[in-house]
Amino acid sequence: MKLYSFWRSLASFRVRIALNLKGVAYELITVDVDRQQHREGAYAAVNPQMALPSLVLDDGTVLTQSLAILDYLDEACPGPALLPADPKGRARVRALAAMIACDAHPLTTPRVQRYLTEVLHLDDTARAAWLRYWAAEMLGAVEARLAGDGATGRFAHGDAPTTADICLAGHALFARNQGLDLGGAPTVQRVVEAAMALPAFAATHPLAQPDTPESLRRAPTSS
Ligand SMILES: N[C@@H](CCC(=O)N[C@@H](CS)C(=O)NCC(=O)O)C(=O)O
Questions:
Q1: Domain around 198
Q2: Would you say the CB of residue 52 lies under 6 angstroms from ligand 1?
Q3: Which of 36, 84, 136, 205 is deepest in the core (most CB within 10 A)?
Q4: What is the 3-state secondary structure (H, E, C) of 39-65?
Q5: Same domain, 114 and 180
């Protein structure tokens, strides 16, 4: 398999975690979003939406959209399940994942940030406030959903990592990058720490990727 990815793409991070949890070998192909490579013809031919990630299967099938890719990997690959077995549990995990991947993340993607600055002429301070606001809003919403819910365990759902933890790991990183203290969301902080302690999460951390700029790159760690 080939994964088109970028080190700081949080949607790519989700798929890297899932591939590692499942123990699936893949070739990593960098598409540099900072240099707009995702908008060039070569990548647009892979994914006309011009967004990362894309996973190209050995038979040439192109899969896009991180949540759809996670579902594919869960259905097609052996290894630990990314969703619980029971329908109510699956719905809960999918809801947590959707809060992050469908509600929060789309507000902060590079194309949205470009529109904020180039069309609406927001300055850096206003743009940073936008990112921080939506990071905090979702952190609070997920905390409210997890805290005191008996279905929350060592991880976001029970005692094994699921798609919810995969999405939450990226959102926690994003929130920290916006200067937020996860101490204000103690349940999120606890389950993300548990997830990031797992090798599949640590190894796929944005700062531990082959395409992470050298000045930022570090060995896989748990935070
Ligand atoms: N819903 C998509 C999000 C895809 C997405 O927006 N990816 C970002 C990187 S995390 C991207 O490629 N953005 C390019 C842009 O906004 O121009 C998914 O989960 O895969």
A1: 87-202
A2: yes
A3: 205
A4: HCHHHHHHCCCCCCCEEECCCCCEEEC
A5: yes
In a domain, 208, yes or no: no
- The answer to whether residues 54 and 159 belong to one domain is no
Domain end marker among 80, 99, 131:
80
User: Atom 9 (ligand 1): residue with closest C-alpha?
Assistant: 9
Tokens of 50: 């011009």
222 Cα to the center of ligand 1, angstroms: 24
Q: What is the pLDDT of residues 47-86, one digit of tens each?
A: 999 999 999 999 999 999 999 999 999 999 999 999 999 9
| Model pLDDT, residue 222 | 53
Which band of pLDDT confidence, cut at 50, 70 and 90, is reported for residue 142?
A: very high
Q: How much of the chain exceeds pLDDT 70, in percent?
A: 99
> CB atoms < 10 A from the CB of 69, how many?
21
CA torsion, ordered 111, 113, 119, 123, to nearest 10 deg: -160
213 domain residue, yes or no? no
**Residue 47, Cβ neighbours under 10 Å: how many?**
20
Pairing of β 2-5 and β 27-30: parallel
Question: Rounded CA gap, 211 and 8, in Å?
Answer: 9
Phi-psi bin for 131: left (phi > 0), alpha (psi -120 to 50), beta? alpha
Domain end (from 80, 100, 115): 80
Backbone angles phi, psi at 40, to 5 degrees: -85, 165
The residue whose CA is least distant from atom 1 of ligand 1 is: 65
